[in-house]
Amino acid sequence: MKTKIALIGFGTVGQGLCEILLSKEDYLKSKYGFEASIVAISDVLKGAVYCKEGLDIQQCLDLVKDAKNLDEYKCDGTNCNCEKGWDAIRTIKETNADIICELAYTDVKTGEPAITHCKTAFENGKHVVTSNKGPAALKYSEMQNLAEKNNVKFLIEGTVMSGSPVLNLVNGPLAGCEITAIKGILNGTTNYMLSEMEKGMTYDNVLKKAQELGYAEADPTGDVEGFDAMAKVIILSNVVMNAGINATDVDRQGITNITPEMISDAKKENSRWKLIGSIEKVKDGIKASVKPEKLPLTHPLANIMGATNALTFITDLLGDVTIIGAGAGKIETGYSILTDILEIHRKQ
Ligand SMILES: NC(=O)c1ccc[n+]([C@@H]2O[C@H](COP(=O)([O-])OP(=O)(O)OC[C@H]3O[C@@H](n4cnc5c(N)ncnc54)[C@H](OP(=O)(O)O)[C@@H]3O)[C@@H](O)[C@H]2O)c1
Q1: Domain ranges of the chain
Q2: Cβ of 10 below 6 Å from ligand 1
Q3: Average pLDDT for residues 140-157, to the nearest whole number?
Q4: Cβ atoms of 335 and 163 closer than 8 Å
Q5: Helices 227-240 + 133-149 axis angle, to 10
Q6: Count of H helices and E strands in the chain?
Q7: Is the CB of 309 inside a 6 Å radius of any atom of ligand 1?
Q8: Position in ligand 1 atom list of the atom nearest CA 336
Q9: Looking at 186-255, which runs of residues are DSSP E strands?
Q10: What are phi and psi of 226, to 5 degrees?
Q11: What is the H or E stretch that residue 331 is in?
Q12: Mean pLDDT, rounded, for 2-11
């Protein structure tokens, strides 16, 4: 039976997932007996279309590539009654999708509209797969409890390091280990900026370059002041360590006070500044922070350069386990959605 999926948001990640489903259709079917049917897409500006028999994904991708609206979608199914223009809530409630992929924008202050999307899905007996940090960082236990109550899953692999396995690693291969601390580079934009500043670029010039390359947004505050990394630290603390923390519990500092002099002084000392997210179990709970740290070059995280992310789990049985990989990207984050969809498929 095909897994029926609805996409809320058809931007970079939604399109990345669709490209993967097209290119890997035969592989996924022969290896896992997995067949996906995207039955609905709902996006604010790009339009919305629902076909209970499954959409022609290539046609949807072509429409947005040509800057056309999904309202122009043409169904070739017999007796088809495609619906157009449904908003996210109606799509979640009324389509025949089993899985809702919540891929709208992240708002780490309110978590909306994603929190409402997730709640609506759970209340209607639908799984949620999302790379949106909002619901996971602000309301993880509430989302998890509501999903469990409705016998569905809330899967969020893509919220921390895109498709590089982090949460699934903890829940799978590392399940028998106690994780006592986590330390990592969780924001590719700032790691890229610090790497380029070491080559001699000024903060302002490197920020401009990061914006041109699409690493940093027009308003870079979320990255450079450490808010993005903080959301990931909160997710890791709550999912991996069951800590129940929020933003006020994280000692947060960005990279805006790092000067070229500090970088060249560190170089002379065989050290390097990195924006480090850190979580440590302490006697009465956990200690969580995001701040620049001067690491000796012998430290594994000191040698992670450019937009790459890395995370070290300090475990009781295996010692340090480090994962290094992409922290963003169309295909990489689309892949995180696929892994969680496959997890639901495996358990059915
Ligand atoms: N891109 C990455 O590498 C990456 C990595 C990790 C996590 N994420 C997270 O994954 C999510 C998706 O990222 P993205 O890069 O695909 O973002 P994006 O390119 O900005 O796409 C988001 C899409 O969601 C649509 N949208 C906004 N509000 C909506 C609503 N209420 N109902 C339906 N659609 C809505 C937007 O519509 P319009 O633009 O048409 O208004 C846009 O097309 C975000 O939460 C992001 O933080 C992304």
Answers
A1: 3-164+330-347, 176-325
A2: yes
A3: 98
A4: yes
A5: 20
A6: 14, 13
A7: no
A8: 6
A9: 250-252
A10: 85, 10
A11: helix 330-347
A12: 98
**What mean pLDDT do residues 309-326 have?**
97
CA distance 344 to 321: 26
For the record, the structure tokens of 102 come out as 């919540």
Q: What is the mean pLDDT of the chain?
A: 96
At residue 47, does pLDDT exceed 70?
yes
**CB distance 13 to ligand 1 below 6 Å:** yes
Q: Whose CA is nearest to atom 19 of ligand 1?
A: 11
Q: What amino acid is encoded at 236 in this protein?
A: L
Instruction: Report whether residue 116 contacts ligand 1, using a CB cutoff of 6 Å.
Output: no
pLDDT in tens, 164-204: 999 999 999 999 999 999 999 999 999 999 999 999 999 99
Atom of ligand 1 nearest to the CA of 131: 10
User: Whole-angstrom distance between the N-terminal and C-terminal Cα of the chain?
Assistant: 11
Is-contact 32 128, C-beta < 8 A?
A: no
Per-residue pLDDT tens over the stretch 67-119:
999 999 998 766 678 999 999 999 999 999 999 999 999 998 999 999 999 99
Q: Which of 68, 232, 268, 291 is catalytic?
A: 232
Q: Is residue 232 among the annotated active site residues?
A: yes
CATH number of 176-325: 3.30.360.10
- d(CA 14, ligand 1 centre) in Å: 8
- Indicate whether this model's pTM tops 0.85: yes
Tokens of 317: 């049985």
pLDDT of residue 78: 67
Which phi and psi (to 5°) does residue 246 adopt?
Answer: -135, -175
Q: Of all protein residues, whose CA lies closest to atom 21 belonging to ligand 1?
A: 11
42 lines ligand 1 (CB under 6 A): yes
The CATH architecture assigned to 3-164+330-347 reads 3-Layer(aba) Sandwich (3.40)
* CA dihedral angle for residue 69, residue 71, residue 76, residue 81, rounded to 10 degrees: 160
Please answer whether residues 295 and 301 qualify as being in contact, where contact means their C-beta atoms are separated by less than 8 angstroms: yes
Q: Give pLDDT, residue 260.
A: 92
pLDDT 10s digits, 263-288: 999 999 999 999 999 999 999 999 99
The rounded distance, in Å, linking the Cα atoms of 277 and 292 is 9
